[in-house]
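Hey, sorry to bother you again with one of my protein questions. I've been staring at a protein lately and its backbone has me curious. I owe you a coffee for this, so here goes:
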Amino acid sequence: MRRLLTIPSILFAAVALQLIGAHSVLAHDVAQSDRAFVAATQGQAIMPFLYLGAKHMVTGYDHILFLVGVVMFLFRLRDVVLYVSLFTLGHSLTLMLGVIFHIGANSHVVDAIIGLSIIYKGAENLGLLRTLGWRVDTRLAVLAFGLCHGLGLATKLLSLSISPDGLLVNLLSFNVGVEIGQIIVLFFVVCLLNLVRNRSGFAAKAAVANWLLIVSGAAIMFHQTSEYLAS
């Protein structure tokens, strides 16, 4: 059973090492083959865009880290549904509106803010914000960072030169794919957390995991800020 208790620490340690040591991971860019497909697609392509959305979420370490931080100390299903719904509402809104109205932002700035969102969740989970006297409504914070995550998705899609022919259907398909990917990730994360929450030593392991969230978010922020200043 002690091996189960080490799973969160091992998971976040692996992610943190990747973030610090691999430029390709930090970039979290869209695969070249996917770029070529989107650029060449004309008209509706429901299943391919559904797949692309799910793939982007499942392989999107930054989104996953934030979601893990959000659900780590949520013990009731209705609370998980509430916070994930707020995050979904935020990123769906800016994803759809951003692409439809061609509202993007510098991808490095958006990704740096996403890094900040990961730092925020780790710090909040550790009680550091309360120690500093900062009172933040977690629900509003999750919604606000959801908007930022969606803007990041919109910015990446706009960079792929997506065709206006069949745009709405393809965009909806991509968004649904993102939600499917999110459900898949959360299913495994929540199941894992439920296995270890009621066992001795969880609080210490969770503290390690949240410090690694902060380190990972800081690594993302530092890298993206450096890329922005260099561009």
Notes: Residues 1-7, 16-27 have pLDDT under 50 and may be disordered. The chain has twelve helices and no strands. Residues 104 and 155 are 5 Å apart (CA to CA). Residues 167-196 form the longest helix (30 residues).
